[in-house]
Design brief:
The protein is an alpha+beta fold. The chain contains three helices and two strands; from the N terminus they run αββαα. The protein has two domains: 1-45, Pemi-like Protein 1, Chain: D (Ribbon), CATH 2.10.260; 47-83, no CATH class.
Length: 83
């Protein structure tokens, strides 16, 4: 396991073999989570791809249909209608 140092600006240089293995390029984004006082996790992420996925999911929702189905469900329960 390589040992790295943090510089005066708080930066950590990832070893080349890790950058190559994970295909890390300049500008890639990472999530950083503090686990405890002596441990952090750094996870490579693609925020643009994540947001595109969320937007596609939202765009695929048919709100009118969802509202109608929920309204029908509430009405059946309220007026004790069964099919």
């Amino acid at each position: 396991m390589p040992v790295v140092k943090i510089d005066e600006k708080g930066r950590i240089l990832l070893p080349k073999e890790i950058r190559d293995r994970m295909n890390i390029k300049p500008g890639d984004e990472f999530l950083v989570a503090n686990i405890d006082e002596n441990a952090i996790i750094i996870k490579k992420t693609d925020v643009k791809k994540m947001l595109k996925g969320l937007i596609e999911k939202v765009n695929s929702i048919d709100l009118e249909k969802e509202i109608e189905e929920e309204g029908n469900k509430v009405a059946r329960k309220k007026y004790k209608i069964s099919y």
